[in-house]
Design goal:
single chain, alpha+beta, Immunoglobulin-like, 3 domains, 8 helices, elongated, disordered N terminus
Length: about 375
């Protein structure tokens, strides 16, 4: 009866470790409109575990969670341990609220064109984050979009490009590039009319010079009429070179390589938060020493600040803790943030004190401790 048991033990001891990585979210080949995607899952083999080559330590149950900081376009997330590797492909699209919803619950008819070209970096929205698709487009903006679509080389001009486009103008590099490429030429009185609406006929001529003749995207449009921003996007999207880039962008089987690794971040971890002494007497002046140990941020967004909320004992809600060897901090740069606080307790009871660590991306980690007022 002992032989089967021995065989079973030997099988367990000498069988290879089953190294499985299970990813709960996100799904592979996801289209995202967010700056951050939460990545979570589990592994039963934590050895040499990393995400996008950043070492991470899974929790005791093997679970892991982090945030992927996405850039516009293609993003790759690679989760691996010593035995296995899994890849997630995420396409981060750029959207605009006034394109997704025009106020009546309907999306703009040019939405797909606008989102794709914005994601490719060929067009941009307004400073307020909207796109204003039905606003009239200026000549300067149209030229800048065409230059971006054609990926022309930019350089700061040494002299004024036109009388109304001085070399210091923020659009001067794009206008100069369009002029060098002969998309545009001379204008009366050397005035480009950079802020003036561009007629449809002129837009067609510019696109024709940029890449051969282009079929009108809006056949019913009057050639002398002004163009909206949405109409211009549709015209530019018909250029063969742009269509090739659009096809490339939508292909999940191409160019999801290490060069497309997105940033990885986790919230700061407060490993411990201690208050010494743990109790104070009512009505008597007391000095408490607070120490917060923050986990190292290797590979993640650096720590920006550590603050503690002392409002429960009559102090500031955002008192700053330091790790510079001053104001009660014992060792500079050891990851332990300190603050000494003098006060007179006015109310008895357990007072919760919360410490908050914030990194440069604004991600937060918190810990709590209790001071007993007796």
């Amino acid at each position: 009866m002992k032989v089967p048991f021995v065989c079973f033990v030997l099988f367990i001891l000498f069988s290879p470790v089953f190294a499985e990585i299970k990813i709960d979210i996100p799904k592979d080949m996801k289209i995202s409109f967010s700056d951050v995607e939460i990545v979570s899952g589990s592994t039963n083999n934590p050895f040499e575990f990393s995400i996008n080559n950043i070492p991470m330590v899974p929790k005791g149950d093997g679970s892991f969670i982090c945030g992927a900081i996405l850039h516009p376009g293609k993003n790759l997330i690679e989760v691996k341990n010593e035995k296995e590797k899994k890849k997630l492909r995420i396409l981060r699209m750029i959207g605009f609220p006034d394109v997704d919803d025009q106020g009546d619950g309907k999306k703009h008819s040019a939405r797909s064109y606008i989102l794709v070209l914005a994601t490719l970096g060929m067009i941009e929205g307004m400073p307020d984050g909207s796109f204003h698709p039905d606003d009239v487009l200026s000549r300067g903006d149209f030229l800048a979009w065409v230059v971006k679509a054609k990926n022309l080389k930019l350089a700061q001009p040494n002299e004024d490009v036109y009388f109304d486009v001085p070399k210091e103008h923020w659009r001067a590099p794009q206008i100069e590039a369009a002029k060098i490429a002969r998309y545009i030429g001379e204008y009366p009185n050397n005035l480009l009319g950079i802020d003036s609406p561009i007629p449809r006929s002129e837009a067609d001529e510019i696109l024709g010079r940029a890449e051969g003749s282009t079929e009108a995207a809006i056949p019913a449009a009057d050639a002398t009429s002004e163009m909206t921003r949405a109409q211009a996007v549709i015209l530019i999207s018909r250029l063969p070179s742009v269509q090739r880039q659009v096809k490339f962008l939508s292909d999940f089987n191409r160019s999801y390589t290490i060069g497309k690794f997105c940033g990885i971040n986790v919230s700061p971890e407060v490993e411990s938060f201690m208050i010494d002494p743990a109790s104070s007497r009512l009505g008597e002046q007391a000095i408490i020493k607070m120490r917060a140990a923050i986990a190292l941020r290797q590979g993640f967004s650096p720590l920006a600040k550590v603050k503690v909320d002392l409002s429960s004992i009559g102090g500031a809600y955002d008192a700053e803790m330091v790790d510079d060897g001053t104001n009660g901090d014992e060792v500079a740069g050891d990851g332990t943030y300190s603050l000494n606080f003098t006060f007179v307790p006015k109310e008895p009871g357990n007072k919760e004190i919360i410490v908050k660590a914030t990194d440069q991306l604004g991600w937060e980690g918190k810990a709590r401790s209790v001071l007993d007022i007796i």
